[in-house]
Design brief:
The protein is of the alpha/beta class. It contains eight helices and 19 strands. The chain folds into three domains: about 140 residues, HUPs (Rossmann fold, 3-Layer(aba) Sandwich); about 55 residues, Roll (SH3 type barrels); about 80 residues, Elongation Factor Tu (Ef-tu), domain 3. The chain is globular, with a radius of gyration of 21 Å.
């Protein structure tokens, strides 16, 4: 019998994932990874833990499945939260969801409990494809919900043991299944938080650990001071909202972290906001490139969106340079550039966008 560890968060996606496994006559063990937003200063926000736990407990009873809690709170703070704070302090844009998947959900959890199972099942919108004897990460049917961007830093050994039961469904189908099966999470809204941070407001999180420090908002082209901001760490390249400025739209195009200055330019088509070359560090393929696939012509993403951009890639060791067919806006150093094959099916790998993009 196949041994499956089902990672259930209490949300509708992972609940439907569990339901589908049961419909396939599987009997997975349910695991809930406990990570709260509580540190030595106390509770940061209304943690979802109690609500999550109530739903997962109901699911375990409904399907008569074994249920365990794995506490990775300490490890989460030492890795994902520390990475997020340090990255922001350096003026870069972190992606804690990508790191959380690699280190926590499919890393440390596996070391603590998942290694006893053949597969880990999760409610991500993604698929896997067996090609030439290897398992590849491939995109979901629902391109608006596809989460391969957030899974792109996983390695081949992690990917080959993951099951994505809802990967070939669209979100409306998932909701319909949840309602028909009378799942307790059927009407629960999608999480808008970062990774496991639940309802936390990201700006509140940054203010708690980095504080507030007034600085100048400067027009990049003219050097004119246009206003004040609360600290460069609250802003990312390409950001429009939250600047509090009229006669826009204004976009953040650069930051001076030493002098606490953010530079803005008017209009998304500003030459200061766009580039056709994206430099990546720590680039790696999840698997060797599938036989017959040419990686010099690719599709890529620099953020989680349903759209892909066409380009070419040149790789030297762990560095890579993507040359886009068209100019790309909002290239944020610290974020991940994720590379796909030309058919937009295979998620090939990822790297971190370099500071100053050089």
């Amino acid at each position: 019998m196949t041994k499956i560890a089902a990672l259930v968060s209490g949300g509708v996606d992972s609940s439907v994932m569990l339901h589908l496994l049961k419909e396939q006559d599987e009997n997975p063990v349910i695991f809930y990874i406990k990570i709260s937003m509580e540190d030595e200063l106390g509770q940061l926000d209304d943690c979802n833990f109690r609500d999550d736990l109530a739903i997962v407990t109901q699911l375990a009873k409904k399907y008569a499945l074994k249920f365990e809690i794995v506490d990775l709170h300490k490890e989460y703070w030492e890795t994902v939260v520390k990475y997020t704070i340090d990255t922001v302090k350096n003026g870069l844009t972190p992606n804690p969801d990508i790191l959380c998947n690699k280190i926590i959900k499919f890393g440390l959890f596996d070391e603590k409990a998942g290694h006893n199972f053949d597969f880990l099942a999760t409610g991500h919108y993604a698929t896997t494809t067996l090609h030439s004897g290897k398992v590849y990460l491939t995109t979901a049917t629902d391109r608006f919900k596809d989460q391969t961007y957030f899974l792109s830093a996983l390695d081949a050994n992690q990917i080959r043991r993951i099951m994505f039961p809802i990967g070939k469904l669209v979100k409306s189908q998932v909701r319909d299944i949840a309602q028909q099966a009378k799942l307790p999470s059927a009407h629960r809204p999608d999480s808008q938080g970062i990774c496991f941070l639940g309802k936390i407001n990201y700006s509140d999180f940054l203010e708690r650990y980095l504080g507030v420090k007034s600085g100048d908002i400067v027009e990049a082209e003219s050097g004119k001071i246009l206003g004040k901001h609360r600290g460069f760490w609250f802003y990312t390249i390409g950001q429009r909202h939250g600047l509090g400025m009229s006669q826009g739209p204004w976009y953040v195009v650069d930051k001076n972290t030493d002098e606490n200055i953010i530079f803005v330019s008017k209009g998304l088509d500003s030459v200061l906001l766009s580039d056709s070359t994206i430099s990546l560090s720590n680039f790696g393929f999840i698997n060797p490139v599938p036989e017959g696939m040419f990686v010099d012509t690719i599709k890529f993403k620099i953020r989680h969106t349903p759209e892909f951009t066409e380009g070419t890639i040149a790789i030297s060791g762990t560095d890579a340079i993507i040359s886009s067919k068209k100019s790309v806006s909002g290239i944020a150093p610290g974020q991940f550039g994720v590379v796909y094959d030309y058919s937009e099916t295979f998620c090939l790998g990822s790297g971190i966008i370099k500071a100053n993009n050089f």
